[in-house]
Amino acid sequence: MSTTTTAEAEAPTLDEATAAKRDALLETLRGYGRVAVAYSGGVDSAVVAKAAQVALGDAAVAVTAVSESLASGELEEAQALAGKMGIRHRVIRTEEFADPNYLRNDSDRCYFCKSELYGRLADLRDRLEVDAIASGANLDDRGDHRPGMKAAGEKGVRHPLQECGLGKADVRALARSWGLPVWDKPAAPCLSSRIAYGEEVTPERVRMVDQAESWLRGHGLRLLRVRYHKGDLARVEVAPEEFARLAADPVRSDLVAAFRGFGFKFVTIDLEGFRSGSLNDLIPPERLLAPRPRR
Length: 295
Prior knowledge:
Order of helices and strands: HHEHEHEHHHEHHHHEEHHE
Structural class: alpha/beta
Number of helices: 13
Largest sheet: 4 strands, parallel
Radius of gyration: 20 Å
Strand content: 5-15%
Strand order of the largest sheet: 3-2-1-4
């Protein structure tokens, strides 16, 4: 007798439009030939990896990059999910922290990070036995400042979610229909994205951020960011309904003590609350690659 997991049993049926996009995604990936997916373990890259496994079987491989900018626990979660999906998985080391352009942390920092990642993947084409490299960029990513997309274009990286018209809502629906536990996982960009532009990215600073965010998650928060600003200042972004809990003792005093132990001199709570990409608000409009979406 066959058994069904809880996630599979509760997986909803896709609506007709999303199902059509799913089918187009599978067909598009088949057209790529053998594929390496740049796979972080987040919902976007997980959906591409799962689709590649469904479409191509052993001709697909998921590749996860590891460096100082990867948050604690993310690699282990990515490995576990790859095993659940049944896709081949490789882990590589990237060295963006050896690039002074990356460390300088101008508004184009992500370009140098993705150049390193996709360059390493391109160099591995023969050893990975793949014809194409695929990213997890979705249709909604076109509406934000994404210098990494330029690097992808230079390296010939394909964006199957964009090619098939899948936005974030479509991706989450597809992930849920496939029983992927990350279907509702908040976005988790690299730790360097928490460092305010113009402040040098260092292993010490990203470690401070990683420890601080881990502390908050350990206290039950899920939607959060800790931003590093000049003078070792931590700007904490959480959902507004969490403000009162963080500001009341004993949590407040414990938080301050913990963050100071991590290396922060000042701790603030951003009263605007959590919002993805808030540091892009510091970029002069003329330097943005795409308009900032309305919030």
